[in-house]
């Protein structure tokens, strides 16, 4: 008997449809759940093939907003003068598209043809002078402005909570302006997508007459659908951050347009001239001003030196201990480094089809299901440096009881790393939700946060929780919780999701390691940072944006 | 005939004397100019032995201020209640001592029994609660507060420009509170001096029951007479910063007492929760509040792995090119790395007595006087890592035409590195001034800044100018200008000194790489940063310190 396979969506969403707004990534690209995933979900959630016969709430209808533009027409005319009529839109589709990020809540709403928030006008500035004019005008007339890069926000960061203007930076402002090979920097417009940026750096000899090829060093899971400006204003972190640094570490200088003026910070590699405005602007999430240009560190691309490794540890404790030793060993850092907790490890092994004789071998050697932990990664940089990092990682992992599994798992992970988000729509078509929350921890507090957050998630019946750490520092790491659940209830999801945030806070984790704050986490900011630090951010907000037009309405908990 | 040697001061300054205020470092320690220095100075400045027969303006008299305490007596009583009567002083000596840093201008004034500025009261808080009470009281009564750590400021950063309180943090608040080996951090009080801090970390197994010995990684030239808090609030940089990072990079979390409240930032290794207040406080130079506790990264101490190297380059251009290649080579950074320009190299070779056959050999090989450049440094960290750094440095230096001189010069430099400042008083006793100014540069602008600033200094007749770069980054480095001149005129010195700052700015260097701003550089801040960025700093100032009591009177150009 032929096994049943759900009819996963195989067609690009209709143009202008709700689905075309919330579908992740390339409209024509899909990554369906594997047979392993499908069987596992059915088993864990007590579902049957019958539950996967009819897709629900696909959002195939055309976007209709039924909400008039309330901004006075005279303003539109003025904006058209500034940026050209073709760069000002007010059709329903554009208003919804540029108001939406990629949270589960938004996807659930859009599937039901609901768009609670939309800007009045969508403006596509051609250059920084356009941005300056728009910001000055909006400041004068108290019109809210929301910046939109690539729209991969997972915290309502681009939501036009008070209408006004969606300012789309990726339409025109998406080029590398210069590569300075002496300084090893690239000057980039904020709306450039990751792949185009990386491609330009790899092609630097041809495009910018450099002697070397370069890499940006920043590869978040959303790489293909995120913008350079978004990386910086939300404090993102790439999957190779342990070596290359977080987005904030890449920034040499920036130019911002704010209601309080336009300025560009200096390009010095370091200074002692007081608190650094260059740092103050990082992570400001559109609340202080609009990033219009940024000069970033770049790195020589030497992919031929990359070394791949993976290990199996007998326990989570051993994997954590080894990771800490790697980070504190003073031999340089691996680029990619990831450890998966027992549930993620075991589900991963099932999903990616480990041969049963390998499993038997592992179990015989003491690597037991729901105890063992997978570690994978890469070492990059100069050849001997990378070789030594790999050698030291291997030595440490073995000392902590791990066995080497070679480079296969790391290579496989690398090939598919940007595709995971594509599974969300397929599963949601049948009422299964995947979502993630993440936090940073010190080494001393890692186990407590992992245990308490996991306990909370697992206390809900029939809920998967897979956790990994993937961004490493000598002083700690992050924890990334991936949870799957079956629910049709937006309210139930929302309450559960908020409960996880509460538990992260209560157990001592940070509110966010690299997803930013947005409106989703904003309500916890004051309790998390304390009133004194929150008051500092509010003082900066008042300075840059005295009339409260920059991304107003709950962003970062500022208003 | 026996050669004349000046009678350099060999006795500790009299207790309570002006000299005891301005003398650098240990009162009983001296490093006299070598015979080489002495001969070179006579020759370059057209001086004779006769000029070195009588010391002038030694400042051996007792400090007398002849200026009454203007603060109302009722305040003093309240302060005594807070911190204990023994921790409140108003004698002339204390008022002058804790008002003085180590600028040439201050030394010249103190030699003439002049102290333009002094606080009314000197307070030595016992703990952070004391600081909280003092700050709250001063805020209530609008009394200025000036923080004093170890007093090695070279920019009038501790000068009580408006009287009030000198708050001395090094008297009691000078301990390591905790070493967290899991997180690899130490929590320290701000008044701890460098050597005591480093000693505690080296002794961590005995003192804190750790498995490893640790190092702080921060070794500025002022190490022995600087405080941990000072490193951070002035954005200092140690001589091994290329590997360990600048002071700002070492800070994990901080606790500040400000008029707007007391707060402690989180210990997470990284977060994406908006602009980081932890960063905003770094470099605030006492203008926002008082640093009362700091948690710093520490590093495993592995001195047995240190590798020393030195090279001679045929030219400054070759030395710079090699340095850039080292920084951009992706094999990890050397810890110490220094390149000296031709004048510094040649004077150094003369001073430290290079045998003439070595000089002849070097010249024959094309390493000519006033062209050749010395490079020295160390590689630290894990054994194979350090070995590879050394190997790559050697490869690159050779490719750029250098020859290896072995490790001797680097070891010798290391042994004497903290002693150079001791020569200042000896020379000043005979009217010869040594001073330094420093800047940071991108690689692209390095040569311009070096050339233009040097041209300015050398345009003054009979003036030495020795320049090195000593803090390296992939995007650039610093330039450190050491100049010697003969003058008795404070006004002439001041004008010349200010002229150098102007030239640094005009040629595109930063106002400061690691000396901070203080009151000396404050007047240039607005032009350097631009009005928009200066307005951000002023907005923060208003927020933290609405009544302007924290280090008021020109600090950082804020008021």
Question: In a nutshell, what does this entry contain?
Answer:
The structure is a homodimer of 559-residue chains. In chain A, 36% of the residues lie in helices and 17% in strands.
For the structure shown, list the relevant keywords:
Uridine Diphospho-n-acetylenolpyruvylglucosamine Reductase, domain 3; 559 residues; alpha+beta; homodimer; five-stranded antiparallel β-sheet; Alpha-Beta Plaits; Uridine Diphospho-n-acetylenolpyruvylglucosamine Reductase, domain 2
Helical content of chain A stands at 25-40%
% residues in beta strands of chain A:
15-25%
SS-based structural class of chain A?
A: alpha+beta
Number of strands of chain A: 19
Largest interface: A-B, 91 and 91 residues
Number of helices of chain A: 22
* CATH architectural grouping of the domain at 176-300 in chain A: 2-Layer Sandwich
- Spans of at least 5 consecutive residues with low confidence of chain A: none
CATH third-tier fold name of the domain at 176-300 in chain A: Uridine Diphospho-n-acetylenolpyruvylglucosamine Reductase, domain 3
Description of the molecule:
Two copies of one chain form a homodimer. In chain A, helix 13 packs antiparallel against helix 16 (383-399) and helix 19 (446-459) runs antiparallel to helix 20. The radius of gyration of chain A is 24 Å and the shape is globular. Chain A is of the alpha+beta class and 559 residues long. The first copy, chain A, starts with 17 loop residues before the first helix and ends in a 15-residue tail after the last helix. In chain A, strands 12, 13, 14, 15, 16, 17, 18 and 19 form an eight-stranded antiparallel β-sheet that branches. A five-stranded antiparallel β-sheet of chain A has the order 5-6-10-8-9. Chain A has a four-stranded mixed β-sheet with strand order 1-2-4-3. The relative contact order of chain A is 0.12. The mean pLDDT of chain A is 97. In chain A, a hairpin with a 2-residue loop joins strand 18 (472-473) and strand 19. Chains A and B meet through strand 9, helix 12, strand 11, helix 16 and strand 16 of A and strand 9, helix 12, strand 11, helix 16 and strand 16 of B.
């Amino acid at each position: 008997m032929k096994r049943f396979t759900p009819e996963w969506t195989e067609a690009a969403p209709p143009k202008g449809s709700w689905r075309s707004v919330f579908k992740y990534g390339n409209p024509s690209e899909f990554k369906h759940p594997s047979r392993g995933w499908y069987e596992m979900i059915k088993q864990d959630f007590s579902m049957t093939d019958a539950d996967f016969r009819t897709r629900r709430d696909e959002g195939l209808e055309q976007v209709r907003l039924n909400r008039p533009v309330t901004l006075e027409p005279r303003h539109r005319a003025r904006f058209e003068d500034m940026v050209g009529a073709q760069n000002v839109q007010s059709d329903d589709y554009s208003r919804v598209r540029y108001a939406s990020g990629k949270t589960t809540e938004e996807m659930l709403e859009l599937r039901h043809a609901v768009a609670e928030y939309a800007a009045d006008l969508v403006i596509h500035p051609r250059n920084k002078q356009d941005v300056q004019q728009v910001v000055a005008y909006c400041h004068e007339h108290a019109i809210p402005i929301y910046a939109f890069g690539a729209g991969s926000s997972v915290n309502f960061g681009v939501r036009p909570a008070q209408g006004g203007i969606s300012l789309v930076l990726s339409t025109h402002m998406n080029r590398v302006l210069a590569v300075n090979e002496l300084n090893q920097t690239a000057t980039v417009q904020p709306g450039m997508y990751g792949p185009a940026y990386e491609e330009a750096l790899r092609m630097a000899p041809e495009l910018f007459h450099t002697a070397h090829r370069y890499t940006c060093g920043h590869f978040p899971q959303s790489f293909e659908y995120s913008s350079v400006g978004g990386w910086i204003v939300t404090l993102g972190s790439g999957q190779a951050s342990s070596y290359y640094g977080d987005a904030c570490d890449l920034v040499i200088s920036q130019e911002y347009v704010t209601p309080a003026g336009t300025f560009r910070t200096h390009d010095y590699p370091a200074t002692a001239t007081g608190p650094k405005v260059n740092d103050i602007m990082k992570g400001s999430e559109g609340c202080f001003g609009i990033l219009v240009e940024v000069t970033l560190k770049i790195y020589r691309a030497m992919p031929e030196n990359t070394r791949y490794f993976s290990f199996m540890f007998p326990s989570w404790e051993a994997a954590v201990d080894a990771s800490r030793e790697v980070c504190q060993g003073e031999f340089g850092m691996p680029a990619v480094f990831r450890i998966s907790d027992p549930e993620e490890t075991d589900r991963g092994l099932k999903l990616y089809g480990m041969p049963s004789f390998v499993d038997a071998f592992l179990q015989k050697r003491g690597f037991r299901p729901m105890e063992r932990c997978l570690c994978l990664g890469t070492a990059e940089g100069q050849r001997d440096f990378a070789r030594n990092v790999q050698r030291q990682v291997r030595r440490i992992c073995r000392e902590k009881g791990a066995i080497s599994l070679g480079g296969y798992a790391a290579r496989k992970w690398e090939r598919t790393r940007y595709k995971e988000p594509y599974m969300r729509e397929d599963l949601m078509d049948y009422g299964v939700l995947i979502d993630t929350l993440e936090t940073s921890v010190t080494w001393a507090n890692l186990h407590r946060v992992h245990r308490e957050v996991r306990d909370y998630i697992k206390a809900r019946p029939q809920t998967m929780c897979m956790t990994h750490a993937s961004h490493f520092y000598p002083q700690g790491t992050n924890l990334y919780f991936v949870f799957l659940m079956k629910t049709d209830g937006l309210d139930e999801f929302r309450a559960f999701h908020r409960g996880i945030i509460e538990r992260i806070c209560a157990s001592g984790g940070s509110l966010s390691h690299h997803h930013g704050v947005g409106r989703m986490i904003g309500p916890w900011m004051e309790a998390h940072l304390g009133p004194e630090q929150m008051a500092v951010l509010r003082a900066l907000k008042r300075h840059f944006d005295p009339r409260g037009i920059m991304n107003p309405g709950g962003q970062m908990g500022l208003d």
